[in-house]
Amino acid sequence: MSRYHDELWALVPGDRGPAPRHLLDFVRGLPPARRALDLGSGDGRLGAELAADELTVADVSAAALERARGRLPGAHLVQLEPDAPLPFPDSHFDLVLCANVLEHVHDVQLFLSEVRRVLEPRGTLAVTTPAHGRLTGLDVLARGFERRFDPLSPQLRFLTRRSLSRLLDAMGFEVVSLSRRAGVVLAVARR
To answer: Which of 25, 35, 50, 78 is the most exposed, fewest CB within 10 Å of its CB?
Structure first.
């Protein structure tokens, strides 16, 4: 499906240890779910922390999903097509986690429209993304764009708290909480 993403996952060590504490705290603080989707799950390190009766992990990388299979033996694994509609029914999940995913998505409007479609009414969307803002801008001014951003990085989008809030609002989500911790924007929204 996505050779590019599989090649990226081949560069990631097999045992990365636990996820950073601020991400673990964020995910563990999400409400329990009947049906949760870890969208862009990678190896499932954060999906493993979701309190869900039924967990689906989905990613474009077969290599990442193979790693998730070992960590989450009871989860339903789904390989996705990049930039395609999600293969899930309408209103199927009451919780969707997108941890460090939005910054890599080509068509963010399609992606968030699909997330909204598969979330049940009043369902929860949890998003994390690297935080950018004034300090990033100052760093670019001081050190130059090339020193701040790797041209081979898979990151396509740079979000701030404000831009993420506006994006979620424009896509029909109600932002419930929005914070920045350890260089990461953490957002919880409702459909």
So the answer is: 25
pLDDT tens digits, 102-119 = 988 989 999 999 999 999
Domains and CATH numbers, the chain: 3-190 (3.40.50.150)
- pTM comes to 0.85
Evaluate whether 56 touches 38 at the Cβ level (below 8 Å): yes
Q: Are 190 and 176 in contact (CB under 8 A)?
A: yes
Per the document, the length of the chain is: 191
Residue 13 and residue 102: Cα distance in Å, rounded? 22
What are the tens digits of pLDDT across the range 54-64? 999 999 999 99
Side-chain half-sphere CA neighbours of 37 within 13 A: 29
